[in-house]
Amino acid sequence: MTSVAIPLVVRRTIKALPGPLFDAFATEASLTCWFTPSPDITVEALKYDFTPGGRFRLRYRMPDGRNPVVAGVFEVIDRPKQIVMTWEWQAPDPLENVPMKVSFRFLEKPNATEVVITHEGIPSDSVCSIHADGWEATLSVLDAFFIRETQQ
């Protein structure tokens, strides 16, 4: 695989304050409502310890029957500004044991927050493209989640 020189950066402005957006990561119950690239893909928290040094393990249930698992460690939890975590797909995923890092920054804007995802350590351009599509779609699901929350 070829190395990607520039980390993947995905941005989305969401009409919500940084605190509530940050809190969408804080519990297993809230995270599993939206942390997926598509409404027809569900996510299950097999382990979720949202503390500095805490571990997570998430299983995605795909419509085609695959169940990829990603795991990592929360390195930085700085409410409401930033979350940094390691990101490693588990066997039998083709990216198993490829160490990556994902950070989420929450930048306050007038009546909104810009969510900036930086994904480092992606091993190839094709994998970068797949993850770019995934993160863009995940932010769309998060945006829809907050639209629903504000309408209730």
Structure write-up:
This is Activator of Hsp90 ATPase homologue 1/2-like C-terminal domain-containing protein. Pfam families: AHSA1. Belongs to the AHA1 family. Residues 20-145 form the Activator of Hsp90 ATPase homologue 1/2-like C-terminal domain. The chain has 152 residues and is α+β, with helices and mostly antiparallel strands. It has one domain (8-151): Alpha-D-Glucose-1,6-Bisphosphate, Chain A, domain 4 (2-Layer Sandwich), CATH 3.30.530. Helix content is 24%, strand content 38%. The chain is built from three helices and seven strands. It has helices spanning 18-23, 28-31, 125-151; strands at 8-14, 42-48, 55-61, 69-78, 82-89, 100-109, 112-120. The protein has a seven-stranded antiparallel sheet with strand order 1-7-6-5-4-3-2. A hairpin with a 6-residue loop joins strand 2 (42-48) and strand 3. The longest helix is centred in the C-terminal third of the chain and has 27 residues, at 125-151. The chain is globular. It starts with 7 loop residues before the first strand and ends with a helix. 20% of the residues are buried. The mean pLDDT is 94.
CATH homologous superfamily assignment: START domain
Q: How many domains would you count in the coordinates?
A: 1
Low-confidence stretches: none
Biggest sheet strand line-up:
1-7-6-5-4-3-2
CATH topology: Alpha-D-Glucose-1,6-Bisphosphate, Chain A, domain 4
**β-sheet strand percentage:** 35-45%
- Overall structural class, as computed from helix and strand content, comes to alpha+beta
Order of helices and strands: EHHEEEEEEH
> Which shape, going by the Cα principal axes?
globular
In percent, how helical is the residue content? 10-25%
Total count of helical runs of at least 4 residues: 3
- The Rg value, from CA coordinates, equals 15 Å
Distance between the termini: 47 Å
CATH architecture: 2-Layer Sandwich
Mean pLDDT: 94
In this structure, how is the largest beta sheet organized?
7 strands, antiparallel
CATH level 1 class label:
Alpha Beta
**How many DSSP E strands?**
7
